[in-house]
Design goal:
By secondary structure, the protein is α/β, with parallel strands linked by helices. Helices cover 24% and strands 31% of the residues. The longest helix has 21 residues. The relative contact order is 0.28.
Length: 132
Amino acid sequence: MAKVKSGMTIMMIMAMAMAMVASANPGTATFYTPPYVPSSCNGFQDDGVMIAAASDTIWNNRAACNTNYRVRCTGPTNAGVPQPCRGDSVVVKVVDYCPPPGCQGTIDLSEEAFSAIADPSAGKINIEYEQV
């Protein structure tokens, strides 16, 4: 009976882990540089440096304002920097809008946030992101 219970526990843990991985969305990230104010969401409020501007994919007519996203680099978008990822993830707060056609990614990270997860020389990276 103990073996059955431990087997079921392992299966439940694996299912939960798979669900967590499946909840991340694929996309791309770029970065922008200071000054970070004013922002579309909070005007001249200083929101720190772990911030981002959302593309239309996330923006949803300002509904994304002040939501947090965990962003993780998954790889390069070009051959310029073949291994840009640093292996970490970062949590950023959406404080601005990245409008088309200038917006070149799903999410435009602050320079500091981008640098925490990837080599800035890459300019644009593939990511996984999820609201947290």
